[in-house]
Amino acid sequence: MDDTLLQFIRHLRHHGVAISPAETLDAMRVVSTVGYSDPKLLHDGLASCLAKTVDEHSQFSECFDLFFFGHSNIHSADNHSDNQTSPKNSAQPSTQNGNETAENASNNEDTASAQGDAQGQGEEGGQGVGGSGAGQQKNDVLNEVIRAAAEAGLDNIQYRTQRGVYRRKILNALKDDTTLKEIQRLQDAGDDHKAQVLSQLREHQISAIKELIDRQLLLNNDSAIKQLRDATLQDTSLSAMEHYHRERLPPLIRKLAKKLAARHSQRHKRSRQGKLDLGKTLRRNMAYGGIPFHRFWKSTHKDKSDIFILCDISGSVSAWSRVLLLFVQALSDVLPSTRCFVFCGKSIEVSDLFKAYPADEAMAIIQDKHGLGSSDYGQALTTFWEQIESKLTRRSCVIILGDGRGNGGDTGIDALRKIYHRAKLVLWFNPESHHSWNTGDSEIRRYQSASHYVAECGSLRKLERLLDQLLTLIR
């Protein structure tokens, strides 16, 4: 098993990139083919099988740059060395380079570490710390540091205050005490040149350790910060969000919708199979002593529901309508036939816009064309009923999102009652907090009498929960 690749995949999952076992096997085949020597080729190869969406591609690139930061230098030196191995073998932090260094260390009496041995060889070749041997020695040092960091469990670092602890752990794994003693011994013996070279290599180690710790800390904390931010955004009322945070909602909505779709897709597959017909199964398997070699199922046919969505896009609640419509479009694979309407005055169907444009672009067009003015619920509900009357059946589900504040005008309650008596479900999602209902010009209590369910949807988590319940009801 390739520990380096598996560690990278663990980081991707930690950053929200879903990777299946089959995709992990594909990634292993990519690495076995292209190796680690060419970072760009490795990036493109792994991205082709691990990143499936635009958001995942962006996250993949960030993690790749942080995780494989020093590997290109290592591989470049390996490819130009006299004892060159195949790229995919020379690139592994814990493979051949480390073994060769350890073997050389055991054969050299003047040093007590792999770094000292590498310098001894450089000096005998007349190169000292300069020339082509120096670059190889530095990369050997980095290789050893990466291997020692894995041994020290650097993956688990979470806080900046832990940097000193992990620095000491990595130095211990590199036998730093032995290196210091060797430097002192060489100085006492009057061999200042070797002592200086060994000190320089130790400084390279410490510098590589610092950079590795900082990058690992950034890699781990970046994921933790994103998870905390996503959790906070889900629980925060949209009315309290700044514009900057609202712009970060679409990727989060797609992520939540994907999880919701996967959950209900599995439920749907199980429900289509039906329940086991025990009597028929036993009768048909009497010839086998009652052992159920052949199973028979009670399948039930359900007519699909139609969903009609009406959203208020006036200034007071337009942000919530945008979130609901984005959520619905992201759930298109598991939702039945859905028609979307928006209103400030008359209701206007916008289903074709979502078919012609990406969801974000369609929402921008809708807001520009139809998002001006104050809410007129009387006109909106009346025209909405006229548009869907011929299509509304006992299998239909109607969702209305609005605060129910009609500015003292006609409420349109008669049209809503007609919809209520014809449809299977009428759900009203109100973005205002419950204690604000029926205050001022709010008519939500009247609308509640002509709805099967009225619920608060002030945050992303509440809206997700409502859609989860809706999918359960219509399945």
Automatic annotation (TrEMBL):
InterPro entries: UCP010256, Uncharacterised_CoxE, vWFA_dom_sf. Residues 122-134 have a biased composition (Gly residues). Pfam families: VWA_CoxE. Residues 82-111 have a biased composition (Polar residues). Signal peptide: none annotated. SUPFAM superfamilies: vWA-like. Residues 78-136 are annotated as: Disordered. Residues 112-121 have a biased composition (Low complexity). PANTHER family: BLL5662 PROTEIN-RELATED, BLR6139 PROTEIN. This is VWA domain-containing protein.
